[in-house]
Every structure is written in C-alpha cells, then in structure tokens.
Amino acid sequence: MPGGSYVVPDGVLQLRGQPVLRTRERALQDTATAHRLWARSERLTGVRYPWPTEPPRAE
User: Fold this and answer.
1) pTM for the structure as a whole
2) DSSP 3-state of 39
C-alpha cells in the first residue's frame, strides 16, 4: 500500500461494502487530533512510547 493510504469499505459511512483504497482524507492530515488521540491512549492504557525527539526515560 502507498504511504498515507488505508483501506475502507466503500458503503455508506464506510461501514460495509467492498474494500477500497483511500488517500488524502482530511482525517489523515489532522495532526492535532492524532496527537490528542495518542496522548489519551497512553493515559488510558498506561503504556507510553517516547517520541523520537524525546530522550529515553530512566525506569
């Protein structure tokens, strides 16, 4: 698959249907929402992965 693409059903609200390749969806470009989702997922799961720019944490 090309980078930045994903597969979804082609039906209403992408809930059912034949698989189709999607690219350049607005949601893929929404980095602010992606960051909030990542941060919330870390809080809810208790699992944290440092960003590449962060130094590793001592445990």
Assistant:
1) 0.45
2) helix
